[in-house]
Fold:
Amino acid sequence: MLTDIHAHVPYKQLAEHLEYAIAHRINPEVYLTADALDAMVWEELAAQARLIHESGLSTTIHSPFLDLNPGALDVTIREATRRRMRQTMQVAEFLKPRVIVVHPGFDELHYGDHRMEWLKNSIIFWAEFVSRAESLGTVLAAENIFDREPSTLKGLIEAVDSPCFRHCFDVGHFNLFASIGLEQWFDEMGELVVESHIHDNHGQWDEHLPVGEGEIDFDRFFRLLKRYAPTAVWTIEAHSTEHLQRALKNIAVFAKS
Structure:
């Protein structure tokens, strides 16, 4: 598994980090911001994709999420989200990602009284993109963000009902927001996991620390991940090269257990 690690990199920084990624055999998870999509030079993307694939690396994509919500009650927000997802799928035609991580957008504080309306909007929204994912040979993976427990996320995945729409488990977000234990989450969602975002924190804010430098029980996490989702992509969400290097070193220790 440690020879198949992915690491977060914003698209605008991909060019400067690509040589390092190739030299160290680290597969990029390319994070697409709205600005990056609007400024995309498609010939440059094609050249980068060709270099990545010729080097024997694979990719994943993290789609835009700020200000967006596929299940929004406001149709204009859904249309903005649809535009960004269509751009993301254009990028996917070049990068050929194994997984495209998406934020579902559900927040119980905002949508608790409108859960079913949000869910209906979201189910309709994803139909177009699941079809695109199938044709591209990739999987859309809905990430847990503010979820206290997985029922809404699981309901969405089951309603979309496609092997190309699955779950990205973010262990850092889980530690911040979940009200249930790791075992219960994996009992309910483990077989749907196709990717995991791996970073640490102290349970107060999204620090994106290297594995083992916060309070998350990574012995338990990796044991559950390997049991329920042995083929899932492991993606380090580090926000600096130094943190990435520390995370890789620490993951090697936990992964042996």
Remarks:
- Residues 28 and 116 are 36 Å apart (CA to CA).
